[in-house]
C-alpha cells in the first residue's frame, strides 16, 4: 500500500486557526502580536518570501511591519533599526530575511536581535537553549518537521531517526529536536561514506540536503516516515524535494510531498513563535 501523504497545507491551516485564536485573546487584552520583517536588497526569491510572511501575519490577525532597504544600507544602519525594533512594544518578533548583501555580517545582525524577539531561533543563545533543553524559540523549518511527524501519531521514543544534512538552520536543530523527543539520532552529511547503510535502518528519515533523488526507495526501511525538506527543480523546472517521491511512497508509511509538505509549515511555525513571544512578554 502506498505511503500516506502528510499534508502540510492542511496541518498549517489547522495550526494557523489555533494561532489566530491565541492572537485574538491577546488583541482583546491590548497586546496584538506584532512581527517586523526586514529585507535588504532586491533578491527576487527573498521578495516573495517576505511578502508571504507579511500576508500570513494579516491572515492570523497579527500586526506586521515590512521594512525594505536598498542593497547599500550600511551594517550600522541595520543594527540601529534592530535596536529600535528591540525596544518597540508593538513588535514581538523580528525577522531579518537572509541572505544579506555581502558587506553586512549576518552573524552580527542575528545576534543584535533581542533573544525575546528571535522568532527565527537562529541566534547563538536560542541554539544554546535548544541544545540544553531550555525553553526558547526553535528554528521554524525543523520545528515544522516535528509537527508533521507528530501528526502521524508516532511516538518517537526508542525510534531511530536519520537526518541527512547538518546546516545550522535545518539539519542540526532537527537532530536536536528528534533527540529531545527521545529518538536515537544519526546525522549524515556530505562526508558520510555510505548513506544508504544508515537510512535503511531508520524509522524516520529527514532529508535536508538540496539535491534531487538523495533518498531513493532502495534506501528506505519499509514503514518508515520520510520528511522531505529539500527544495530543488527537476528537469522541467518543476519544484521537487530531495526524495524520489514516487519510488519512496511505495515503501514508506508516511511521506511529505514537495510542494505542500514542509514548505507551508515553515511560515506557520514563525507565526507560532511570534504568538508565543507576545504571550511570554
Ligand atoms: P545547506 O546549508 O546547503 O546544507 C545542506 C546539507 O546537506 C549540508 O550539511 C551538506 O553536508 C549535506 N549534503 C550535501 N550533499 C550531501 C550528500 N550527497 N549526502 C549527504 N549529505 C549531503 O542547506 P539547508 O539550508 O540545510 O537546506 C537544505 C535544503 O532544504 C535546501 O534544498 C533548501 O532549499 C531546503 N529548505 C527548505 C525549507 C522549507 O521551508 N521547505 C527551509 C529551509 C531549507 P556538509 O555539511 O558536509 O556540506
Automatic annotation (TrEMBL):
Gene3D superfamilies: Leucine Dehydrogenase, chain A, domain 1 (3.40.50.10860), NAD(P)-binding Rossmann-like Domain (3.40.50.720). CDD domains: NAD_bind_m-THF_DH_Cyclohyd. Residues 139-280 form the Tetrahydrofolate dehydrogenase/cyclohydrolase NAD(P)-binding domain. It comes from the Bacteria. Pathway: One-carbon metabolism; tetrahydrofolate interconversion. Residues 6-120 form the Tetrahydrofolate dehydrogenase/cyclohydrolase catalytic domain. Keywords: Amino-acid biosynthesis, Histidine biosynthesis, Hydrolase, Methionine biosynthesis, Multifunctional enzyme, NADP, One-carbon metabolism, Oxidoreductase, Purine biosynthesis. Catalyzes the oxidation of 5,10-methylenetetrahydrofolate to 5,10-methenyltetrahydrofolate and then the hydrolysis of 5,10-methenyltetrahydrofolate to 10-formyltetrahydrofolate. HAMAP family: THF_DHG_CYH. Belongs to the tetrahydrofolate dehydrogenase/cyclohydrolase family. This is Bifunctional protein FolD.
